[in-house]
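Hi P.,

Sorry for the delay on this. The queue was packed all week, but I finally got your sequence through. Input first:
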Amino acid sequence: MLRAQCGDREALELLLTAVRPSLERYVRGLVGSSDAEDVLQEVLLIVYRKLKLLEHPEVFRAWMFRVASRAAFRHLKKRNRWPDRARDEDAYEHLAAPGPPPRDDALLALLTSDAISPASRAVSALRKHLNRERNT
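Then the structure:
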């Protein structure tokens, strides 16, 4: 990480190669498969440009996912895929009361639908990603 911040190109390539799979899964969960590669490239470019500004290298992963969230939200806003109904209070009346955590297939279906806002989709995708990392 420190070598990458100091301009070592090989270290940067190794760093980005190491984080790309998890970052790609996260971005795909937010914007969908068809737009994931474009958003991922934007995220990697931002990480490359701003890595030197990161003051605490130990928070790199959290910072990187925050960069990805912001890029995904910008992308969704440009595409007008942020449903207006998510801001309407009546839209939440059909939601079930809290219960046991959803199955993986139900969570995946929710992540790919327009029924939740991109911000909620980001939280769900990140939670799923963190659970997967904990189990491996």
